[in-house]
Every structure is written in C-alpha cells, then in structure tokens.
Amino acid sequence: MTSLTKKTLSGKVAIITGGARGIGEATARLFADHGARTIIVADIQDELGQQVATSIATPDCICTYVHCDVSDEDQVKSLVESTVQNHGKLDIMFSNAGILSKSDQTILDLDFAQFDRLMAINVRGMVTCVKEAARVMVEGCVRGSIICTGSMAASNGTKKWIDYCVSKHAVLGLVRSASKQLGVHGIRVNCVSPAGVATPMTCDALDKGVVEVEEFFGAKRILKGVALRARHVADAVLFLASDGAELITGQDLLVDGGFQA
C-alpha cells in the first residue's frame, strides 16, 4: 500500500462540493497540504467559499471557488465541464454537499415538501455529481476517484430524521452500483460515512454548541478519549482519493469511533 505523503495528490485536480465549511473545508485544506495541483471549492455559500479558496491558494496549488447548487443538474454539469476546460482533467470528485433534516420527522408526521427538498440535494445532487464526474473521467481516460459523503445512518434505522436516513441509504446504493458500472473504466467509487461530527451544520440543526454536540455523540461511541472531528473524516477521504486505495472500490468506510461495532 502506498504511504500518504505531502505529495500524495501531486498533480491531481479535485472538486469538493459543500466545500465552504465543515468536512468539505477540512478536506480541501488537507488535499492542498498533500500536493493537489488544483482544488475547486463548490458551494452555495459564496462569501465563505471564496474566503476558503483564497486562504488555501498558493503558488503551488490553484484553489478557486465556484457557486454550485447540486440540486440543479445544469450547475453541476457546468462545474465539472469548466474544471476540465480550465485545468485539463478531473481526477477526484468529493461529492460532499448535503443537508440535515429540518425537524425530527418520523414516518407518521413526514412532511413531503421537506422530504423532496432534502432528496433533491442529498440524493439527486449526489447522483448528478457522480454522473457528471464519471462522464468526463471516461471521456478523458482518467482513472479517477469519486468519493461520496454518507453517514452511519446509511447502515442503521433511526428513531427520527427519517428523510435524512432514507437519503443516506440511497447514497450507499448509488456508490455500490456506480462502482460496479464504472470499474471497467478504472474509476473507483467509494463512500465515507462518519458518525455525528460537530460541524457548523450539525450544531445549527441540533441548536447546540460544539462541545455539547461532541459530548452528545461521544457518549454513543465505544472508542473514548478523542472527539470525532471534520479532520478525521478528511483523512479518510484523502486515503480513498489516493493511489494507496487503488484497489478499493464500492466500499463504505466508517469513521465512527466504533459506533457500528
């Protein structure tokens, strides 16, 4: 297995959706630290996204921000095609953009307007990112890596947030099917599934501070002594994006501190 070094992603061109904060931002910074030539930070939070891209860019790493709502197929297609036009190829797609449930919905009180909005981003948006990235990788004969953000909710039922749980099960099905269909082109498709991480989005959804969220989810893990943070998930994404994972595809890499155990 190839070790991860500061040149692990040397020469690579990557897109990270949902890259303005949280797991996406942490991954963008890690990719830059490990030699990525070009990183496209895609999000709908323009001010934050631009700040992140500007702070990452160096003479050795091009990092730019692109506004992209992943629920809009045309915007995703434009994002991917402009990346190839401007930078020659696409090696890595980290399809990370997603949202959480707006309420503690169960099947008995499911609001389909909320359900449809969440599915448009978490499922349709994820499928679109995988489709468009794979299309240009096949056309460019690139043995690329596509990574999707899943969740421990993809492997368990939940007592609430049913819309979110359903969406993450769909993501896992996407990864497993797409990996089988794209393997012939040398394209790897994997999923990274964290347990609860105290990202700004999670803290907002739970209306709790970082420490409270870390304690809330930490109580459910068997591995004690360290809080699960965005950088831990980013480490897993970096591995799946690297040549060190060149024979790994169709997998769901759990970053959960033993929750599933």
Automatic annotation (TrEMBL):
Q: Which organism is it from?
A: Corchorus olitorius
Identification of the protein by name:
Short-chain dehydrogenase/reductase SDR
Which InterPro entries does the record match to this protein? NAD(P)-bd_dom_sf, Sc_DH/Rdtase_CS, SDR_fam
PROSITE patterns in the cross-refs:
ADH_SHORT
One Pfam family matching this protein: adh_short_C2
The record's family statement is: Belongs to the short-chain dehydrogenases/reductases (SDR) family.
